[in-house]
Amino acid sequence: MYQLILRNFAMHIKLDAAEAELITAKLQHKTVKKKTVLLSAGTICRNIYFVNKGCLRIFNTDNEGQEHNILFNPPNWWAVDIASFSGQTPAFYNIGALEDTDVFYLSYSILEELYTQVPKLERFFRIMTQNGFYLYQQRITSNLSKTAEERYELFQKQYPRLEQRIAQKHIASYLGITPVFLSMIRKRNS
CB-hemisphere CA count at 13 Å for 49? Predict the structure, then answer.
């Protein structure tokens, strides 16, 4: 049950058996149905989620009701509104399920406890935050300097096989284009 998340931790830290047991004992688990919202903008992000199966998305809804997908979270990815979670302030982003999704999660207070009990976890989440910041910087640069076709190619590399699992409108939103334009790009590339 915990194999994927323990392998995820092992990417950056080495946990001994006692530490792994302590962490897994504190992990909470749930399965959410497609279209379930785990976090709504304006509420406080109280949990950090690890996707074990399925897919989440982090998105914002503008004043006209348009949704803008910022990040997809397939298996082995984490999902959080980091500013809200870290500061325990109202969230700017929403987190929702694109498929029936199985997640492990830690609350803010439990994670703070674990930082004291398993200091290596602070290193893990620091590295994860740095990697996430790098990803956002790359995404901003890509949105400003690359064509829609180039952004689509990057999406395919970053999220292999996800394209077959989620709606075209979500991919188009992530790329900053219309679904019709995405169809045109796909036709040109096939």
Answer: 31
